[in-house]
């Protein structure tokens, strides 16, 4: 029946409803498919409020994964590489994942090995801040690599 019932058991519908009215609470059906149906006496508005509160806490405690993208060309200059490296370090320190990609235009797809070297170097430079989730892979005209932040202890 409910938490405040001394002797839970099988009651007729009218007896259970009378008990609920005496306590100024609601008779709530828990399982209708069982024989006899399972009911509980409780304050339904309070129950709904607690459910909403619990759901809100679960949502607040869940972590949202943010993915930041850093794009390179196959012939990225050293200064540009270092500049983007600093940005990636900041993203990883704040807990975001980094999606590093090399975009090939026109015939530059012939230099896909240069793009792979660039991404591997990028992952090695970021080893202290994050680890590579996958090796660089070519998807159409882009070579993509994901780097996840290192868990802080």
**CATH architectural type of the largest domain:** 2-Layer Sandwich
**Could you report the average pLDDT, rounded to the nearest whole number?**
86
Q: In total, how many beta strands? A: 7
Which structural class should the secondary elements be placed in?
alpha+beta
* Rg (C-alpha, Å): 30 Å
CATH topology of the largest domain: Translation Initiation Factor IF3
Q: Compute the number of helices.
A: 4
- The count of domains is 2
The fourth-level CATH homologous superfamily of the largest domain is Translation initiation factor 3 (IF-3), C-terminal domain
SSE order, one letter for each helix or strand: HEEHEHEHEEE
* Fraction of helical residues: 25-40%
Using the coordinates above, name the CATH class of the largest domain: Alpha Beta
Distance between the termini: 47 Å
Based on CA inertia axes, which overall geometry fits? rod-shaped
Low-confidence regions: none
Strand content: 15-25%
Major sheet characteristics: 5 strands, mixed
Task: Break the fold down into its secondary structure elements and pairings.
Elements: H1 13-22, E1 26-31, E2 38-42, H2 44-61, E3 67-72, H3 78-93, E4 97-103, H4 112-125, E5 130-132, E6 137-139, E7 142-149
């Amino acid at each position: 029946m409910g938490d405040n019932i001394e002797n839970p058991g099988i009651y007729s519908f009218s007896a259970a409803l009378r008990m609920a009215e005496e306590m100024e609470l609601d008779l709530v059906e828990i399982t209708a498919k069982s024989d006899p149906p399972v009911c509980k006496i409780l304050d339904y508005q309070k129950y709904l409020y607690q459910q909403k509160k619990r759901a809100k806490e679960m949502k607040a405690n869940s972590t949202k994964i943010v993915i930041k993208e850093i794009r390179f060309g196959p012939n990225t200059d050293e200064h540009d590489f270092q500049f983007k490296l600093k940005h990636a370090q900041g993203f990883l320190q704040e807990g975001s994942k980094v999606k590093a990609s090399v975009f090939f235009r026109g015939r530059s797809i012939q230099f896909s090995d240069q793009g792979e070297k660039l991404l591997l170097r990028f992952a090695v430079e970021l080893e202290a801040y994050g680890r590579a989730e996958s090796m660089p892979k070519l998807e159409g005209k882009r070579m993509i690599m994901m780097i996840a932040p290192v868990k802080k202890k």
